[in-house]
Amino acid sequence: MIESDFDKIDAVLIQFKGRKGSLIPILQNTQAQLGYLSKEALEYISEKTKIPVAEIYGVATFYAQFRLEPIGKNIIRICHGTACHVANASKISEALYEELKIVPGGTTKDLKFTVEEVACLGCCSLAPVIMINDKTYGRLTPGKIKDILAQY
Ligand code: FES
Q1: d(C-alpha 129, C-alpha 120), whole Å
Q2: How many CB atoms lie within 10 A of CB 113?
Q3: How confident is the model over 124-152, as a mean pLDDT?
Q4: SS3 content of the chain, % helix, strand, coil (to 5)
Q5: Residues 95, 128, 72, CA angle at the centre, nearest 5°?
Q6: What distance in angstroms lies between residue 128's CA and the mean position of ligand 1's atoms?
Q7: Which residues make beta-bridge pairs with 130?
Q8: Ligand 1 atom closest to residue 121's alpha carbon, by position in its atom list
Q9: How far does the centroid of ligand 1 lie from the alpha carbon of residue 36, in Å?
Q10: Using an 8 Å Cβ cutoff, are 60 and 101 in contact?
Q11: Mean pLDDT on 106-114
């Protein structure tokens, strides 16, 4: 972590100082500031709050909302809702994972992309659909994936 990261955590800790049961909001706010919860960040929170590091890890790993790995610059959401599933979303996922050389939920080594599988992106008529950041790509075929990724 860089110096300013410690400052950001300090600011979060000040906000919750002396409040009982504040570990989850502390972790949420730290993640919002830093993008993910690094080992260093969790150890620093432990040191400052005197909450045992094992307990902090327990909470951070229990809830799906917390990320212990860095997140990619671009977030790809791939829809696996019913309409997309019927329209062969799994073939789109396969093409995506193959192109990026990652596993579901993973982040590319260069931290360019993180992929999340989601239930429905709300544009089922365009199935199968992915979103990259705020942009929607619909009526996909596996062959289109490479060109779409090349735009980022
Ligand atoms: S099911 Fe994929 S957008 Fe709704």
Answers
A1: 9
A2: 21
A3: 96
A4: 50, 10, 40
A5: 55
A6: 7
A7: 78, 137
A8: 3
A9: 27
A10: no
A11: 93
- Rounded to whole angstroms, the Cα distance separating 14 from 35 reads 19
User: What is the C-alpha separation between 15 and 55, in angstroms, rounded?
Assistant: 21
Of how many residues is the chain composed? 152
Mean pLDDT for the chain overall = 94
* Residue linked to tokens 């396969």: 94
pLDDT tens-digit map of 43-83: 999 999 999 999 999 999 999 889 998 889 999 999 999 99
Tell me if 79 CB under 6 Å of ligand 1.
yes
Both tokens assigned to 125: 């008529």
CA-nearest residue, atom 1 of ligand 1: 81
C-alpha separations of 4 from 15, 33, 34, 52, 114 in Å: 17, 11, 10, 24, 24
